[in-house]
Design goal:
8 helices, EC 3.2.2.23, EC 4.2.99.18, DNA repair, four-stranded antiparallel sheet, alpha+beta, 2 domains, Helicase, Ruva Protein, domain 3, N-terminal domain of MutM-like DNA repair proteins, 21% strand, single chain
């Protein structure tokens, strides 16, 4: 699933290519992806792109439509969605079918992009709205972790709000926007903390270390992703992971100095997490989420 760094890079990529251009084609290929019906996608034809923004993991194409005024085309790529950019957009119209194509957007210079979604579980969501806050999932987003509003004090308040596992808090979009399964694994390695650590066990020092890890990991990932074409972002993300997706490999160490241990995994029904026992849990493996003791 694309997370804050990749979505930010996609926003930058589209901003550099689409702002100032006029929409000539907006074609829906997967009706299930379109979550709003008014205004219709046809109202976007002739609209001028004025900006591309990011809200957590949501992308927002801001346009000025001829009859509707300012509109926002906001979408969430979910687990298997992506943006496929074309310098020359295929001429064939987007049609419903078995292809991964969900939405096709064309610009007046012949370029454009597709929103695609692989697999059979279709969760990609597209909304056309006058204000992104009309999308409930955007209206309820938590603090942006790279903003000035995200301070150690704010993080401390979030940790103390209710007792839960710290990995769950990092992934909760209504608490902190933009962090998912992959970057929460990376953050917890750098912070040297167990993914199962209870949030109310964090004192000021551990809170400061977690805050620094959040900022550093995300800032580094954004810097790595920025400027890359959309087609390269997935591979760049995989290459940059220290522990996520690297079960059985040597741990590179929380500070870049190999610790001598290997990356371990805890599996769930539809996901998994990766961690290093030496760096994060005092050398004790977490055999299973349901059976492991909460490690502090």
């Amino acid at each position: 699933m694309p997370e804050l760094p990749e979505v930010e890079a996609l926003a930058q990529f589209l901003r550099g290519r689409a702002v100032g251009r006029t929409l000539t084609r907006v074609e829906v290929a997967a009706i299930s992806a379109l979550k709003t019906f008014r205004p219709p996608p046809t109202a976007l034809r002739g609209a001028v792109v004025t900006d591309v923004q990011r809200h957590g993991k949501w992308l927002d194409l801001v346009v000025d439509a001829p009859d509707e005024g300012p509109l926002h085309v906001v979408w969430h790529l979910s687990r298997a969605g992506w943006v496929r950019w074309y310098e020359t957009l295929p001429e064939r119209p987007a049609r419903p079918g078995r292809s991964p194509l969900a939405l096709r957007v064309g610009l007046d210079d012949g370029s454009g992009f597709d929103l695609t979604e692989a697999g059979t579980r279709k969760r990609l969501a597209v909304h056309v709205v006058a204000d992104p806050a009309l999308v409930p999932q955007i209206a309820t987003l938590g603090v942006e972790p790279l903003s000035d509003a995200f301070t150690p004090a704010v993080l401390g308040e979030l940790l103390a709000r209710r007792n839960q596992q710290v990995k769950g808090l990092l992934r909760d979009q209504s608490t902190i926007a933009g962090i998912g399964n992959a970057y929460s694994d990376e953050i917890l390695l750098v912070a040297r903390t167990s993914p199962f650590a209870p949030t109310r066990s964090y004192d000021a020092a551990r809170t400061a270390a977690l805050h620094t890890a959040v900022r550093d990991v995300l800032a580094e990932a954004v810097a790595t992703a920025s400027g890359r074409p959309a087609a390269e972002l997935k591979d760049a993300k995989r290459r940059g992971m220290r522990v996520h997706g690297r079960t059985g490999e040597a741990c590179p160490g929380w500070d870049g100095s190999p610790c001598g241990d290997t990356v371990h995994e805890v599996s769930f029904a539809d996901s998994s997490l990766q961690y290093c026992p030496t760096c994060q849990t005092g050398g004790r493996p977490l055999a299973d989420r349901r059976m492991s003791r909460l490690l502090r």
